[in-house]
Design goal:
CATH class of the largest domain: Mainly Alpha
Oligomer: single chain
Helix content: 40-55%
Number of domains: 5
Radius of gyration: 35 Å
Largest sheet: 7 strands, mixed
Shape: flat
Strand content: 5-15%
Structural class: alpha+beta
Distance between the termini: 50 Å
Number of helices: 25
CATH architecture of the largest domain: Orthogonal Bundle
Length: about 700
């Protein structure tokens, strides 16, 4: 059996479409499974006016149900005289049967009473009406509405239901809207039509100028733009997210080229592109060098060219660009530094003060980082970058909420035009990097240090006043801030202590009188928070997760050193000696893991091999310490492996758990001492044998 189900409605927002189709499919799969109805596959299709499900290979009947429900043991269900007990009667009643219908079943644990039930599967066609009604009623959206006199809620008013099982209508009704075999084509270039069978639907819907496959609409937009909308030496900027949105706005896409006045090109290119992409859903046209041309592509929901559509969109865009140019020209009338004073009135967070307060704290942390890295010669430009880093937030361009995506970019442009240095300008833009996973990272110290200081203040400040991410709640994007700091430090190879950075930031908050929680507790929480982000970042860099966990379990303070240790351990793990090392350390570690202390009494070393291990461990400990101090992590791993033969002999000859408590304790201390040598750079017990 095949099933076709279409929910027809007024146009829903583009962002609702694909999630609604995914939810419909998942809900249908769940319902079919619960109802014991098998199927081969489910396909979804959708446009702003319709949600479509196609089920192939739907079974004609439910599977029969043959259940054996187990009850209490025979000894509990019957008394010594063989009469049924209260427990037995209770079980029979719970199963809806008489006591005589109970049977005894032999199990490995003995005899138990049971009830055998058989239910013949119903015809699928009889179950489909309620099943489809449930699909509609249970579908949720970010926002819903009621219409007319109906109490039913949906994303937009429902107009029709088409529901066919093979050639037959699946009849149901929701608030006066009855299912049938009727559908509707394109709103302007199609008609209402009826279908006799499911295959006819796919033929007639296309004839009525509706492309129901989302990926096909995307491909049509791209190919039509490439064939019909660009001339030689031109290219169209097609952002994947915008392509996805536009494809979900139309039922039949027809790209049209529009133009705008070239005078608008005096405004920074990114501003114009934002106006086109975000506000109007247009695709900008660039030359081969990436320079914006006074042209764009609008995708019409129609089947042919329309001069009216072209002119209408040109008029709307012209008004948008005029606003952008006005904001830009107004902002340029005053130097960027004039905006800094206004930041004293912009609240960052009620307990943490204004954005100006935040900049003051970030400046102090930046001074500390600058000195730590020996960059005093860049101190002036770094501090200037921080002072101006948020000044564009109160500009006309950003403050009017029209171009918020351009914060940082506009600040950089205004800074240059205000006479600031290129380093400061670039730092203002780069301090926002990375803005999302996979985004570019800052390249100059102005943006690097400003970005770390700003994020640290956000992170430590929020934790310090009790704003801590939980589940999906992270209103101040603290996870993103921590990830940004980790990525910047690793990418820029900064020899910095995370612990010291957090301490410095918490000190500035404490001095400002805004730290509301115990500083030591907050610091511990933030360091653990950083550790989890570092695990994610380093694992994404394709290091083995067990190696990453082993190293960061020991120390997550200096990320550059941690990465060097991970690289050394990762490389060593590919060596045939690696499994020997893991096996050896686990043997030593497991037997001494609960023991505390490494004080060894030489006089209690009874066996010769104990003395040999003692001398070898002292030698290895001294050599390992020197190698670790010089960051020779690969050599350190080779050094600790030299203890293998001695340790093997030790375990062959010595009974660690001696009857003499003093000897036993001494031997455990000796092994604990060896274990600690092994685990200097990583908790090697977390490493898996390769």
């Amino acid at each position: 059996m095949r099933l076709l189900f279409e929910i027809g409605m007024e146009e829903i927002p583009a962002r609702f479409l694909e999630q609604a189709l995914a939810d419909l499919k998942n809900n249908l799969q769940k319902k079919l499974k619960e109802d014991r109805i098998s199927f081969e596959n489910i396909k979804t299709f959708g446009t702003p006016r319709r949600l479509v499900l196609l089920v192939e290979g739907l079974s004609e009947n439910q599977e029969d149900l043959n259940l054996l429900n187990m009850g209490p043991a025979k000894s509990v269900a019957y008394d010594t005289n063989g009469e049924i007990s209260r427990a037995g009667l209770g079980f029979a009643k719970s199963q809806g049967v008489e006591a005589k219908d109970l049977e005894l079943v032999e199990t490995p644990k003995g005899e138990y009473i049971a009830v055998r039930k058989f239910m013949k599967g119903e015809e699928t066609a009889k179950l489909l009406p309620e099943l489809l009604k449930g699909l509609v009623n249970e579908l949720s959206f970010p926002r819903t509405m009621k219409w007319g006199d109906k109490s039913f809620k949906f994303a937009r008013p429902i107009q029709w239901f088409l529901a066919l099982a093979n050639e037959n209508v699946v009849e149901f009704e929701i608030e006066g809207i009855k299912s049938g075999r009727e559908s509707r084509g394109h709103r302007f270039f199609g008609e209402t039509f009826e279908i006799a069978n499911i295959d006819e639907y796919f033929d007639k819907i296309r004839k009525n100028n509706v492309i129901i496959d989302i990926q096909e609409r995307r491909d049509m937009i791209k190919s039509s733009i490439e064939k019909n909308c660009i001339e030689e030496n031109e290219q169209v900027l097609i952002e994947p997210a915008l392509l996805e949105e536009v494809a979900n706005l139309v039922e039949y896409p027809y790209p049209i080229v529009g133009t705008f006045n070239a005078d608008f090109l005096e405004v920074p290119q990114d501003v114009l592109i934002i106006s086109m992409e975000v506000h109007q859903r247009y695709f900008p046209i660039l030359d081969k060098n990436g320079k914006l041309l006074p042209k764009f592509v609008v995708v019409r929901n129609g089947i042919d060219f329309s001069e009216n559509v072209k002119k209408g969109n040109e008029k709307v865009l012209s008004a948008r660009l005029a606003d952008a140019r006005f904001f830009y020209q107004e902002d340029l009338k005053h130097p960027l530094i004039n905006n800094v004073e206004k930041l004293k009135t912009v609240v960052f967070q009620k307990d943490l003060g204004t954005i100006y307060n935040k900049l003051e704290r970030a400046g102090k942390v930046a001074k500390y980082i600058t000195e730590k890295l020996g960059l005093e010669d860049r101190s002036e430009t770094i501090q200037r970058t921080i002072l101006l880093s948020k000044a564009d937030l109160v500009s006309n361009m950003i403050g009017e909420k029209e171009f918020t995506k351009l914060q940082g970019f506009m600040g950089a442009d205004y800074a240059l035009k205000s006479g600031e240095s290129e380093l400061v300008s670039k730092g203002i833009e780069e301090h926002y990097y990375p803005r999302f996973q996979g985004d570019k990272l800052p390249t100059e110290y102005e943006g690097i240090i400003a970005g770390i200081s700003d994020r640290l203040d956000t992170l430590c400040g929020c934790f310090g006043v009790g704003i801590i991410p939980s589940g999906s709640k992270d209103p101040f994007a603290l996870r993103r801030s921590a990830l940004g700091i980790v990525n910047i430090i690793l990418n820029s190879k900064l020899d910095l202590s995370l612990s010291d950075l957090v301490e410095e930031s918490l000190n500035t908050l404490e001095e400002a009188g805004v730290l509301k929680r115990n500083k030591a507790e907050v610091k511990a929480e933030i360091m653990e928070f950083f550790k989890q982000r570092a695990i994610n970042v380093l694992t994404d860099m394709k290091y083995s997760k067990d190696v990453v966990l082993a190293v960061l379990d020991r120390d997550c303070d200096n990320l550059i050193e941690a990465q060097l240790k991970i690289e050394a351990l990762e490389k060593f793990s590919k060596n045939e000696k690696f499994n020997k090392l893991v096996a050896m350390l686990k043997r030593v570690g497991n037997i001494s893991k609960d023991h505390i202390g490494t004080d060894i009494n030489i006089e209690l070393l009874v066996e010769p091999i104990e003395k040999e291990l003692y001398e070898k461990s002292l030698e290895v400990s001294a050599k390992a310490e020197e190698e670790l101090n010089n960051k020779k992590y690969a050599e350190y791993l080779e050094t600790i492996l030299t203890t293998e033969n001695v340790i093997d002999k030790y375990f062959e000859s010595v009974m660690v758990m001696d009857k003499d408590e003093k000897i036993k304790t001494n031997r455990l201390s000796q092994l604990k001492f060896v274990s600690e040598i092994f685990n200097k750079i990583a908790n090697l017990t977390l490493i898996e044998e390769k």
